Amino acid sequence: MTVLAPAVSWHEDRVVGRRTYRRAAIGTHLVHVKEPILDVLRTYVTPVFEPGDLLVLSEKFVAITQGRVIHRSLVRPGLLARLLVKGVTKLKDDVGFSDPAKMQVAIMRAGWARMAFAMSVGGVTRLFGRHGDFYRLAGNRVSEIDGFNPHTVRPFNEFAMLGPEDPPRDAQAIEDATGWPVVIVDANNVNVEVLGASRGVPVPVADVRLAVLDNPLGQGEEQTPIVLLRPQPAQ
To answer: Whole-model pTM?
Structure first.
């Protein structure tokens, strides 16, 4: 195994509760579909990891290495997808489900009836200030579907990512193989959601989420799917 000097970008420290977190975004090469994730991690993390550190991994990174992607050419948006996207708000730097192709992928996972129901009810409850009902009612891990984002590094701007196969198990498998505690997150410039964590994470997982809430993983072409957190002693 060749160990490279990684491109490490240290971000401003983040204070959560009584603890300060040092944060480093680790750049990688353009990871390929089904590329062994352990090889990638060992190549770029080994030179910088210290005892007490933990890794935060992008769910897109994990999904790509598992081959859980669908190319746009394989998706044919139907009438329901085109109707449903009319009620979706497009966010800056994140198309969300405003792309009919991405909506079609969600329909393929959840079924047209459930998606139509979720969108209808979610649209009504949003008028009363409730958010998240669409994803809750759609189920089938629809909220983890990512991709078809023009701001994403090529060629993955033309792919949908279905999310990791089993985030808690995936995180634990990485820790078992490397000894590095792992948290897998679904992160964008709006929110961060923890999908899974290994048992060796040395701090509360809720604090890890807050430590990366500004998304140091990046939302565009940064190619930094790994963030190293270095918790400092609690004050």
So the answer is: 0.85
pLDDT digits (tens, 9 = 90+) for 93-126: 667 778 889 989 989 988 888 888 887 887 788 7
Tokens found for residue 64: 């790509």
Q: Closest by alpha carbon to 137, among 147, 125, 151, 122?
A: 122
The tokens of 31 are what? 């990871």
DSSP state of 144: G
Query: Is 231 strand, coil or helix?
Result: strand
Secondary structure E strands in 59-110: 69-71
Q: Would you list the DSSP string of 179-212?
A: S--EEEEEE-SS-EEEEEE-TT-SS-HHHHHHHT
Angle of helix 167-178 relative to helix 37-45, nearest 10 degrees, comes to 50
Handedness of CA 164, 168, 170, 174 (dihedral sign): positive
The structure tokens listed for 23 are: 């944060």
First-to-last CA distance in the chain? Answer: 39
Cβ-Cβ contacts under 8 Å for 130 (sequence gap 6 or more): none
Q: What is the CATH number that goes with domain 7-68+163-231?
A: 3.30.1330.100
Contact (CB, 8 A) for 105 and 70: yes
The whole-angstrom separation of Cα 219 and Cα 60 is 11
Instruction: Give domain limits for the chain.
Output: 7-68+163-231, 70-158
The span from the CA of 116 to the CA of 134, in Å, is 10
Angle at 114 between CA 109 and CA 116, to 5 degrees: 110
Is residue 172 within a helix (H) or strand (E), and if so which, with residue range? helix 167-178
